[in-house]
């Protein structure tokens, strides 16, 4: 059982670096099934990197933004709290694809700013980040509220400031509580990157559809699907390791 994550990571690397297959003597010109697989992966390689870039930048921006939205959602000021609630409601209550279209076409239709060919990548990052920030905000809030109130009182007795209480007492416990739902959101994000086709962003699954249409062959879609599966195996494995490390009560 322990070998499965290692095998998954090895296959994942082989997807990312098609040149490693060439060095092993597998040629893309071969008419064998392995040669076809190599050719398909080579064609998908640029889309794979774009999907990975979208996934990575979304996490980098959405997780801290979600924490900020969480603080606003828990604000003592009713107006700020209502604004945060409305933002979360909109992001969670409307389709992600619609949000991507608004972010992509909004600058042109509202401000008449011409759209550049590179903007679809930035629009995808913005759209995914603001969407996932809403989900992360609610996950963070549940983790914070899971910390017993007595610990806040103990921190106050010890003379901790609000920031010290959060960083030294609340945050470590919050992280431990939220890891399972955060893992689920990250796995969902891996698959949701395929929705970027709505704004003409050619990520891996879009490229797989183009190859399948050109070759009249559905197999490139299965190759792309296998990549998502392997990537999510790696994500689940890494997050599982972090979760075990954060389990302070494990014997």
From the coordinates shown, what is the CATH architecture?
Orthogonal Bundle
- Report the top-level CATH class: Mainly Alpha
- Tell me the overall shape: flat
Q: Spans of 5+ residues with little confidence (pLDDT < 50)? A: 15-31
Report the span from N to C terminus: 22 Å
- Structural class comes to mainly alpha
The percentage of residues in β strands lies in: under 5%
Most strands sheet: none
Q: Let me know the number of strands.
A: 0
Number of helices: 10
> What is the fold named in CATH at topology level?
MetI-like fold
Structure, briefly:
The protein is mainly alpha-helical and 251 residues long.
Question: What does the model show?
Answer:
With 251 residues, the chain is mostly helical. It has one domain: MetI-like fold, CATH 1.10.3720. Helix content is 79%, strand content 0%. Helix 3 packs across helix 6, helix 4 packs across helix 6 and helix 7 runs antiparallel to helix 8. The chain starts with a helix and ends in a 5-residue tail after the last helix.
């Amino acid at each position: 059982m322990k070998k499965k994550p290692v095998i998954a990571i090895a296959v994942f690397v082989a997807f990312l670096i098609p040149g490693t297959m060439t060095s092993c003597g597998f040629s893309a010109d071969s008419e064998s099934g392995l040669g076809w697989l190599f050719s398909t992966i080579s064609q998908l390689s640029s889309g794979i990197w774009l999907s990975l870039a979208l996934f990575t930048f979304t996490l980098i921006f959405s997780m801290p933004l979600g924490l900020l939205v969480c603080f606003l959602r828990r604000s003592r000021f009713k107006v700020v709290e209502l604004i945060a609630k409305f933002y979360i409601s909109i992001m969670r209550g409307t389709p992600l694809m619609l949000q991507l279209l608004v972010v992509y076409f909004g600058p042109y239709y509202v401000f008449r700013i011409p759209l550049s060919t590179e903007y679809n990548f930035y629009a995808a990052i913005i759209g995914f980040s603001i969407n996932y920030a809403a989900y992360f905000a609610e996950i963070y809030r549940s983790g914070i509220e899971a910390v017993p109130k007595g610990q806040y009182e103990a921190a106050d007795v010890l003379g901790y400031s609000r920031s010290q209480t959060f960083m030294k007492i609340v945050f470590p416990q919050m992280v431990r509580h939220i890891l399972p739902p955060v893992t689920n959101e990250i796995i969902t994000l891996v698959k949701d990157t395929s929705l970027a086709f709505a704004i003409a962003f050619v990520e891996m699954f879009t490229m797989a559809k183009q190859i399948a249409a050109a070759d009249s062959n559905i197999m490139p879609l299965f190759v792309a699907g296998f990549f998502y599966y392997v990537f999510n195996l790696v994500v689940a494995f890494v997050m599982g390791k972090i979760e075990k490390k954060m389990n302070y009560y494990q014997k």
